[in-house]
Amino acid sequence: MAPVIEARGLTHEYPDGTTAIRDVDLTVDRGERVAVVGANGSGKSTLQLALGGLVEPTAGAVTYFGETSDAEAVRDRLGVLLQDPDDYLFNTTVREDIEYGPAQLGQPRETARRRVDALAAELGLEDLLDRPPFRLSGGEKQRAAVASVLAFDPEVLLLDEPFGAVDARYRERIRESVTDRDGTLLWFTPSLDAVPEVAERVVLVSRNGSIAADGPVREILTDRTLLRDHGLRPPATVRLFEGLVEREKLPLTVEAARRYLRRDE
Amino acid sequence: MTGALARTVESISGALRAVFAAEQVAAEDGFLQGRDPRVTLLSLGGFALAVMLARTPAVSLGLGVVTVALALLSSVPLRELLARSAVVPAAAAVVVLPQAVLLPGDALASVLGVAVTDAGVAYVVRFTLRVWVGVALLSLLTVTTPFSALVAAMRELRVPVALVWVLAVTYRYLFLFFDELQRLVLARDSRTTDSAGARSEWRDAKRLAGTFLLRTLDRGERVGRGMRARGGARPPSPYGRPRAVDGYDYALSACAVAAVVGAGVVRWLP
């Protein structure tokens, strides 16, 4: 089966001469959950935009679903969530913003309405649907932006720091909403704590915008030297158990750490 | 907020955001809210056309009364309607004011040795009244009908896509533009005191103007991407909000047609 996203030699240089991403080769297969991690300014967001067909690469190309390099032709299959929810919410009510994607992509109104109502319940937006987006708090805006991407049920999600200002309860809900579906997920983040819960593969972007490492979650997240060299640090549980437990057994999540401690008792 | 600059920005942003708040009026039960958006658009457009055709104050005044009646029937507070529609006619009045002394006619009074003529005053009043009624009708339309419903109605009425697109994008970006300006002023305000003085404020204003343009461009680009990510590269196609066309819709349409015909007849009557 053809990969859903295949980038070859992807490079993007901004007009001021800054090269944000450099010669990126990346293949993502159907159903894969990939975390793209890197320090601030490493080019993660530009990579997300380039993979989502929202900026024109200076060099290289992306092929979608083995069919086309034109992102607009497959726009209804790609869900790209930008980093700042304010860039997403420009309609007069939250409901209109969530309906914007399905309407533009030609989905039937009834299907969209059912989906909007379900997402509103899932992400705690029921009471906010008729409010203007500018009156929402930061976390509420973020949830509304996530709902507006999920609303047209894309096959591939490219989410840039979807937790943003969201509180712990809704972080969990967002995580469930995006991982409980069958599609492909690319999660762009500088924070590694949530990565083991959402991804099975990690792509590490170096400070110069190239790919420094690409491998299974455990292999990357337990490599302190690699992470430190790229301005990152391992998840809290890894830091806690480092030196106490062999690398292969380091718990990556709080749940795994708890299981480990109980077993020790 | 401190300083004249900040207060000005706050007032402009507040006025624009009030348009968003108008969505609450649009959600209320009222005469125009209950009409099919296509009928509302065509009918209020018809009344506006009648105002443009009107050449006598009586016709303009009559259409003004119709506008006020529609506002009352639609639960739109008159004060709000006046506030929304006052600026443009006031500016128009200033623009045409010289006509009061330029148009030949019987002198009504003399200001600094220049005669104010009856024909000139009548022209200024007629012009301002027509502008006010036209703007009030437009305000009524935007207050009682959600913008997305208007866009959908325009598409259903086969208004050229390019025109709908321009209107839709202009509307969106207008708010983002002032939102960005307000953010910028807030950022400045959080690090400024009242005692900064006029000179300092002027210096800040110059700096802000440059930064504002760059930030607006950047924000516009980002919002453009946000739209494209959800199919925004395609022509605008919001879900319509059609309603079953009923007797009231027909009555409103008939009134609009009668107004256009009546204004035209009065205008071209020998």
From TrEMBL, chain A:
What species is this protein from? Halogeometricum pallidum JCM 14848
InterPro entries, alphabetized:
AAA+_ATPase, ABC_transporter-like_ATP-bd, ABC_transporter-like_CS, ABC_transpr_CbiO/EcfA_su, ECF_ABC_transporter_ATP-bd, P-loop_NTPase
Bilayer disposition of the protein: Peripheral membrane protein
Q: Which subcellular locations apply to this protein?
A: Cell membrane
List the top taxonomic levels of the source. Answer: Archaea, Methanobacteriati, Methanobacteriota, Stenosarchaea group, Halobacteria
Q: Which residues form the ABC transporter domain?
A: 5-233
Instruction: Write the protein's name.
Output: Putative cobalt ABC transporter ATP-binding protein
Q: What does this protein do?
A: Probably part of an ABC transporter complex. Responsible for energy coupling to the transport system.
Q: Has the keyword ATP-binding been applied to this entry?
A: yes
Automatic annotation (TrEMBL), chain B:
Keyword annotations for this protein, in alphabetical order, are: Cell membrane, Membrane, Transmembrane, Transmembrane helix
Keyword Transmembrane helix set for record: yes
Q: Its GO CC terms?
A: ATP-binding cassette (ABC) transporter complex
Specify the protein's topology with respect to the membrane: Multi-pass membrane protein
**TM region positions:** 47-74, 81-101, 107-125, 132-153, 159-178, 250-269
Superkingdom per UniProt: Archaea
Chief location: membrane
The record's listing under InterPro entries reads: ABC/ECF_trnsptr_transmembrane, ECF_CbiQ, ECF_transporter_component
User: What Pfam family is a match for this entry?
Assistant: CbiQ
A Gene Ontology annotation in the biological process aspect, one of them, is:
cobalt ion transport
Location in or out of the cell: Cell membrane
What PANTHER family does the record point to? SLL0384 PROTEIN
Q: Per its record, how is this protein called by name? A: Putative cobalt ABC transporter permease
